[in-house]
Every structure is written in C-alpha cells, then in structure tokens.
Amino acid sequence: MPASAESPSSDPTAVADEDLLRADVYGLLAALLRREPEQALLAQAASLSGDDSELGQAFSALAARSRTISLEQARSEHLELFIGLGRGELVPYGSFYLTGFLNEKPLAVLRDDMGRLGIARSDGTSDPEDHIAALCEMMAGLIRGDFLEPAPVKLQRAFFERHLAPWAGHFFSDLEAAKSADLYRPVGTIGRLFMEIETTAFGMEG
Length: 206
Fold this sequence. Notes:
Layout: E1 2-3, H1 17-34, H2 39-46, H3 54-68, H4 71-82, H5 94-99, H6 105-117, E2 120-121, H7 132-144, H8 153-163, H9 168-177, H10 184-205
Antiparallel strand pairs: 1-2
C-alpha cells in the first residue's frame, strides 16, 4: 500500500475538521480492505456509532457485527471474498473493474499520477497500486497532507474522478451483495454511500 513521500508533512491543523472526518472514513475503509483483520481493527470497528441516516445506520451495523464475529470468522470471510483458491469472490482492483484484466492502462495512469503527487509505493507489498484499499489510503493522504502538503479540493476531485469514481461505487455495491459477506456487508454499504457523498460534494465544488 502507498506510503508518504520523503518530504515532510504539512501541519495537520491546516486541514478543516470536516475534511479530517472524510480522511478518517477513507482510512477506515482502507484498513478493513487491505488485509485480513486483526483483533485491534475489530475492536476499533466495534466502537463505532452512527446516527439515523443511512450512512450512520451502516456504521452501527458494522459495529454490531464486529462485536459478535470471531477473529477467525472475520479472517475466513476476508479470505473468501478477496483471495480464495486462485481468486476470491471479488477482485478489488481498478484495472479489473474497468477492463476485465489486471495491470492494464488504468494502473499505468495511476502510477504516473502517483509520481507527480509524491506518492510512493510501500515496501513489502505485492498488490498493484490500484487496489481499492490503496486508493482509499491515497485519498486519505491527499486530504491530510501526507504527501508533500494537503491537496486542494481541485486536486482531490481530479484524483477521485480519475481513479475512484469510475468503479469504486460498483465494487462497494458488489461487496454489499456478495454471498460470502457478513462483516463486510456494511463495509460495502459505507463505501457505496460515501462514494455517492464524495461525488455529490465534488460536483458542487465545480
């Protein structure tokens, strides 16, 4: 998954509270999707709470599932959904969703943009950079200023519209409907709704 560039991060107090909340949602999605969950992650998810909105109810559903599922069950579900024997129920890569194949042009375009934005691939990962978790991490980093400095809204919008908007909503909808999903079903709902919120908000900025 992506790591920040060598340049120092900007002062986080320069980022508005509402944007830090957006970054937190991206960060949570990345943590839940990047690898098999650890007990600490389940505990974090179990502590979430939500309001009466559709998104808030999805957070509450995730918290409820996280309190009752065992670590072994959560890891088994992650394995069935994203890894499987040869391939999981879902293939969480932008290139696959957009072209039907891995490591295609969308990945090359992403790598070019990463280079321009000072985003480096983390050591020790074999996943292509267009994994949904990596892209959520990148959005969180752009918002917080992990890569050089906090990105202006125009740049965030350009990155989102190029690398997430064309396929992430479809992926999260598929996750909601996946046969193997229990813990991850509300993750799919959170992701789908959050992509819709981001799309609407960026559209208003235009």
